[in-house]
Write a structure and sequence with these properties.
The longest helix has 25 residues. The strands form four sheets. A four-stranded antiparallel beta sheet has the order 1-2-4-3. The protein has a four-stranded parallel beta sheet with strand order 6-5-10-11, with helices on both faces. Helix 2 crosses helix 3, helix 14 crosses helix 15 and helix 18 packs antiparallel against helix 20. By secondary structure, the chain is of the alpha/beta class. It contains 21 helices and 13 strands. The model has no long low-confidence stretch (mean pLDDT 94). Arginine binds next to helix 12 and strand 10.
Amino acid sequence: MASLKHYLNSVIGEALAEATQSESCNANVITSSKPGFGDYQANGIMSEAKRHRMKPRDLAQQVIISLEQSLPSLIDRLEIGGPGFINIFLSDREIRTRATLAIQEPDLLVPPAENPIKVAVDYSSPNLAKEMHVGHLRGTIIGDAIVRVLERRGHTVIRQNHVGDWGTQFGMLTTYMKETVGAVNDLPNALADLESFYRDAKQRFDKDPVFAEKARLSVVKLQGGDEDCLNAWRMFIDESLRHCEAVYEALDVTLTRNDLDAESRYNDDLSVIIEDLQKADLLAESKGAKCVFLPEFTGKDGEPLPLIVQKSDGGYLYSTTDLAAIRLRRKMSIQRALYVVDARQSLHFQQVFAVARAAGFSNQDLSLEHVSYGTMMGKDGRPFKTRSGDTVKLAELLEEAKQRAYELVTEKNPMLPDSQRREIAERVGIGAVKYADLSKNRTSDYIFDWSTMLSFEGNTAPYLLYAYARIKSILRKAPKGNYHAIQNLSEPEERALCLKILQLGEVIEAVDRDCMPNQLCNYLYELSGNFMKFYENCPILKAESSQAESRLALCRLTAETLQLGLDLLGITPLDQM
Ligand code: ARG
């Protein structure tokens, strides 16, 4: 079923169009700010009235009269509010009917996309020369939530893990690897700590000119397709990917090897990109480097800002690869390409998108969107580091999350068997790290703080997981039965909860459009709040039998909705905590 908001927008929009005798109108329906204003309000009357030189209240009146001639069953009544809003009061009966349907078929809560499209989502995308660190956490988690939502809406989603697997660093690393690692079997051990391996190789490179020369030569050989160098490189990449996969598994992130869209994939295209830019008359030379200058990009003092696509030594750059990747996306008939990447790369993407359009690598059939996110900060407000100032490895951070959650669970529930406490701790710990990130507006910097994310109060994973487990425990205590119908909504808390459940759909539509998973988090937090109010005000197991059945059905649907929402965020709830 279409979301409530979507549906109301279309019926009121049509009535508006009829009243103003125009093609289409925007009813601009939003959830009401106050209970007295109904469940929803249409705010679009004023601007449409202005556009058609009518009095807003007259227009509102006309719309109401025309709708009342055959009032859709969803609407109980309509009222004019303020200078020309329409307040919309929904019918309890229809709310019950829809909720009852959703109990039988929870998928109905998520409306499928009206026009499913082919979407590419570039996310996680670490550099394989080093270990994944906290800088990759946000993009990995946010990107994964976005792909889950888009897929659930019925879009064809192509995950693209644009890993950095090419460039001079790999000459140095593979040369060092060949020197220090004897047998292939020793590789996993030697590369167990990529960070220190990199450090050692770099030290060698800086100190020993003979080694440095060898490393440089191996880059050239690698680029020339030398089988021996390529083999060493493949072994290194393979090992490094295994590190990433361990993190993906720990995080329950859906990326696999099939989703690789590595930089190296584009090697052969890079020279073609330069030729095509030349043909499009976009290339200019600056200090020996090949650049594209577009008038809309200027520096602080108004000087033209280039996008460099080939260095003076002939080497290609990050931007060249991204241009090649856009061209391929276009060839694959992808309609929307999302780049879930750090906000600090926003100028890079603006420039690359603009150059791609100017060169015809992309056109209006492909929407290019940088889904940016802020930096992860420590409690001191500075970029998150270890005490000694090193970058924090993701694998270690996740271990710490589990350990902290284990201590918490043990404190709360010392009687549970240890294995169960470990299992709960894993879900809570990882869930907390993910949720803390997802629940913030992604565009701002975000403060990583263990104590807030592991708190059972506020908009946190433990709070939501606990709410879910609490509902499950009520359902366990209920007499056996098939609670499948919501028969009445006599109490306001009951109605509010039921309506909230039906609003999941419009939140999902918004996440699909804006790529802001925090909207879904806020929704789940409010939903849990609605449940708690219902639970405090409406007896469930002690109510008389038909009332109890209806309320148990509502509990069941609340649990399903929470589970569905958490699942879209990549968090698995627990029946017991
Ligand atoms: N590997 C890059 C980094 O670690 C991110 C790549 C993002 N994706 C892209 N198409 N540029 O910063």
